[in-house]
């Protein structure tokens, strides 16, 4: 058997090495057919991240047992001239917004008219502080924190801003005298805490 290329004739014995080389080249050029080890399938259950809604802090429920309810208050407020004026008020407090906040509505009457304020308070587990935001019917906004009840007292340290400017406000809630009722006292500063002026003082009972 022979193959003729032009005028050159090649016998099978001479062709064999060339054919073997060509076949070996094809063999090395072919993709590997051996299956690679299969990558283990990821378990969807182990990969899924459990996203659970945060739960209201237990401190809110504990505090609500003390403050939630309807309160009637009497006391005094300080006029612009510094004179004391009689004050009566009612406070309605409840757990609100899916148990994340304690809301309270205050309506206070004095010679100067009716003051309305709405406040929301919650507990911040990360900082171990209570947070509070309030607004009133005179355009004032109050934002601040409290360390909670210590020795029967709770003190709010608040920053306020409104139509008449900005400053600091401190609300103290004193429950040490059960017979007299819960005592509320408010003072304010417009000079970054250098001096404080009394704003109101009242005792409240359910």
Q: Name the helix and strand elements from N-terminus to C-terminus, one letter apiece.
A: EEHHHEEEEEEEEEE
Q: Please identify the structural class as seen in this structure.
A: alpha+beta
Number of discrete helical segments? 3
Shape verdict: globular
What spatial order of strands do you see in the largest sheet? 3-4-5-6-7-8-9-10-11-12
Separation of the first and last Cα atoms: 119 Å
Please identify the oligomeric state.
single chain
Q: What percentage of the residues does DSSP assign to strands (E)?
A: over 45%
Rg from C-alpha positions?
Answer: 40 Å
**Parts with pLDDT < 50 across at least 5 consecutive residues:** 1-30
Task: Please outline the major beta sheet.
Answer: 10 strands, antiparallel, barrel
Q: What's the pLDDT, averaged over the residues?
A: 84
Gist of the model:
Helix content is 16%, strand content 50%. With 206 residues, it is an alpha+beta fold.
Give the tags:
globular; alpha+beta; two-stranded antiparallel ribbon; single chain; ten-stranded antiparallel barrel; 206 residues
Task: Give structural notes.
The chain has 206 residues and is of the alpha+beta class. It has 3 helices and 12 strands. The strands form 2 sheets. The protein has a 10-stranded antiparallel β-barrel with strand order 3-4-5-6-7-8-9-10-11-12. Strands 1-2 form a two-stranded antiparallel sheet. The longest helix has 18 residues, at 12-29. The radius of gyration is 40 Å and the shape is globular. The termini are far apart. Residues 1-30 have low confidence and may be disordered.
């Amino acid at each position: 058997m022979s193959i003729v290329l032009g005028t050159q004739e090649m016998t099978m014995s001479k062709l064999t090495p060339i054919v073997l080389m060509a076949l070996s080249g094809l063999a090395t050029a072919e993709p590997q057919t051996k299956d690679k080890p299969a990558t283990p399938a990821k378990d969807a259950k182990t990969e899924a991240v459990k996203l659970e809604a945060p739960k209201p802090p237990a401190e809110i429920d504990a505090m609500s047992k003390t403050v939630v309810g309807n309160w009637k208050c009497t006391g005094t407020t300080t006029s612009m001239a510094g004179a004391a004026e009689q004050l009566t008020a009612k406070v309605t407090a409840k757990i609100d917004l899916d148990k994340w906040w304690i809301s309270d509505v205050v309506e206070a009457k004095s010679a100067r008219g009716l003051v309305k304020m709405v406040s929301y308070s919650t507990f911040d587990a990360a900082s171990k502080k209570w947070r509070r935001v309030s607004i009133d019917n005179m355009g004032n906004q109050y934002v601040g924190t409290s360390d909670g009840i210590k020795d029967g007292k709770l003190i709010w340290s608040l920053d306020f801003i409104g139509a008449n400017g900005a400053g600091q406000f401190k609300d103290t809630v004193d429950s040490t005298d059960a017979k007299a009722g819960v005592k509320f006292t408010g003072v304010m500063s417009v000079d970054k805490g250098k001096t404080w002026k009394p704003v109101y003082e009242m005792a409240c009972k359910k």
